[in-house]
């Protein structure tokens, strides 16, 4: 064999071996990919622990605060993975936003809401769930808050894993209640407050679902079922945008700007009305221009609702960051205060570095683990388009305003998911109503037996039952885990 043939044979063997190495590297990357997100999350938790050691006081290092910071960061990651999906899921399911775009917008506006408008004062006993007198001992109080933080984070993590959006606030409440009972017995719990929270399990989703269904009925009757859909849209879309802006202006004025200025409900509604009218007048020519040349069909309507839906999702994220981050880091702030001053108080200020842990933790959790729940809320419960998703966003803002006016405790998670269910169930009812009222049925409908038609539901019942079950057991499950964790922590040597 000549030297040329030997060289060719050697190169062929080398190429074959390198290709095998290439396949090996591809396989390694495939196997390692699921570990990337947990690895980044672990790195974030380690960085926050180091930051706590730097920002919290003098030597010797307070390891209790560092441990609480670790669990606070873990809690924030889980909130990002679970809770934020409710704001972005409908927009992604309606194809108004890509998954990457939704995550980017949510991360930015959640962080801005937390840092610019986040509440700087939080009740250390989580809104009066347990009597502070019963946990006046500083060490017992620290262990109770630590147990609440750990149990809430573990429960939200489990719920995310099974694909159920649950309430962050209810998880924390359950954790505090369980630790309080373990520390001081059943008498420590404020049962009237707990009754109101239990009532919100029903009130939040039902109110959210009804309001979303009413808006969808309005859009269908005034726009979708009209002969000239584009002309109807030119009249009604600016009105709906004005309603959205007015609702969110009221919502943010009342709930999201506490740190800047305290505004009562009447003033907030006045601000909302003014902003709504201005938005309505401004968007009339914009919608008229955007609708030029559109065909008279439902697909064209999606174009007109796309941008307002994206804006509403961003505003929901800002408001969520302003309100729920404080709930997430409340137990951590309480532990930091108790460790620093050696006393238990009803109200504590949240240090800036604690708010940063919460804000960035939520953003990291959303980026790393959020897509699963975003897809669940956006497309796996019922099929959403921009009009239906817009109704869900409007429902979220309106339900919070109505609940605040009535003095009812509600969950933003339950409202948003309830809105998705409301839209889906309304579609089922409307489809059956139109079929019954239709004198000449379509050929396909004639071929489908009534039993088969009843089986083909527009809302997936399996997801419905999973989510409802998760909601019902959130508080007792978090309470049980918290009680066990507290007993374990309290048994540690001093």
TrEMBL record:
Chief location: membrane
Keywords of the record: Membrane, Phosphate transport, Transmembrane, Transmembrane helix, Transport
Record keyword Membrane present: yes
Transmembrane helix found in the keyword field: yes
Subcellular location: Membrane
GO MF annotations, alphabetized: phosphate transmembrane transporter activity
Membrane topology: Multi-pass membrane protein
GO BP of this protein: phosphate ion transmembrane transport
TM annotation in the entry: 35-55, 61-80, 92-117, 140-160, 172-191, 197-216, 236-254, 260-282, 303-322, 350-369, 389-406, 412-429, 464-489
GO CC annotation: membrane
UniProt-listed InterPro entries: Phos_transporter
Family: Belongs to the inorganic phosphate transporter (PiT) (TC 2.A.20) family.
PANTHER family per record: PHOSPHATE TRANSPORTER
Name of the protein in question: Phosphate transporter
Organism expressing this protein natively: Roseovarius mucosus
């Amino acid at each position: 064999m000549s030297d040329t043939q030997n060289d060719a044979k050697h190169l062929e063997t080398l190429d074959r071996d390198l290709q095998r190495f290439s396949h090996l590297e591809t396989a390694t990357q495939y196997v390692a990919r699921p570990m990337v997100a947990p690895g980044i999350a672990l790195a974030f938790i380690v960085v926050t622990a180091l930051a706590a050691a730097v920002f919290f006081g003098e030597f010797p290092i307070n390891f209790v605060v560092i441990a609480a910071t670790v669990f606070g960061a873990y809690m924030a990651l889980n909130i990002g993975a679970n809770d934020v999906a409710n704001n972005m899921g409908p927009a992604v399911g309606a194809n108004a936003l890509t998954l990457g775009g939704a995550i980017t917008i949510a991360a930015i506006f959640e962080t801005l809401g937390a840092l610019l408008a986040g509440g700087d004062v939080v009740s250390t006993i989580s809104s009066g769930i347990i009597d502070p007198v019963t946990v006046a001992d500083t060490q017992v109080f620290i262990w109770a808050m630590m147990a609440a933080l750990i149990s809430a984070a573990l429960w939200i993590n489990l719920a995310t894993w099974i694909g159920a959006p649950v309430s962050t606030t209810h998880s924390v409440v359950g954790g505090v209640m369980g630790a309080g009972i373990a520390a001081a017995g059943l008498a420590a719990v404020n049962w009237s407050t707990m009754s109101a929270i239990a009532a919100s399990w029903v009130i939040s989703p039902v109110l959210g679902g009804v309001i979303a269904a009413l808006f969808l009925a309005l859009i269908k009757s005034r726009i979708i079922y009209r002969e000239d859909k584009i002309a109807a849209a030119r009249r009604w879309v600016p009105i709906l945008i004005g309603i959205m802006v007015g609702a969110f202006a009221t919502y943010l004025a009342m709930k999201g700007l506490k740190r800047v200025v305290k505004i009562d409900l009447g003033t907030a509604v006045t601000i909302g009305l003014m902003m709504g009218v201005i938005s309505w007048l401004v968007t009339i020519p914009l919608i008229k221009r955007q609708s030029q040349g559109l065909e008279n069909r439902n697909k064209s309507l999606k174009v007109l609702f796309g941008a307002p839906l994206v804006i509403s999702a961003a505003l929901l994220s800002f408001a969520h960051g302003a309100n729920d981050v404080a709930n997430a880091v409340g137990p951590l702030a309480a532990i930091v205060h108790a460790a620093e001053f050696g006393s238990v108080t009803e109200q504590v200020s949240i240090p800036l570095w604690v708010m940063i842990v919460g804000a960035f933790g939520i953003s990291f959790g959303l980026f790393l683990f959020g897509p699963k729940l975003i897809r669940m809320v956006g497309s796996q419960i019922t099929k959403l388009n921009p009009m239906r998703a817009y109704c869900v966003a409007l429902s979220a803002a309106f339900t919070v305003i109505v609940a605040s006016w009535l003095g009812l405790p509600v969950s933003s998670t339950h409202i948003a998911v309830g809105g998705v269910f409301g839209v889906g169930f309304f579609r089922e009812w409307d489809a059956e109503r139109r079929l019954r009222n239709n004198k000449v049925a379509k050929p396909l409908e004639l071929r489908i037996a009534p039993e088969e038609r009843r089986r083909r539901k527009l809302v997936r019942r399996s997801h419905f039952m999973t989510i409802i079950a998760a909601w019902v057991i959130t508080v007792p499950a978090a309470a049980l885990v918290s009680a066990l964790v507290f007993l374990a922590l309290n048994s540690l040597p001093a």
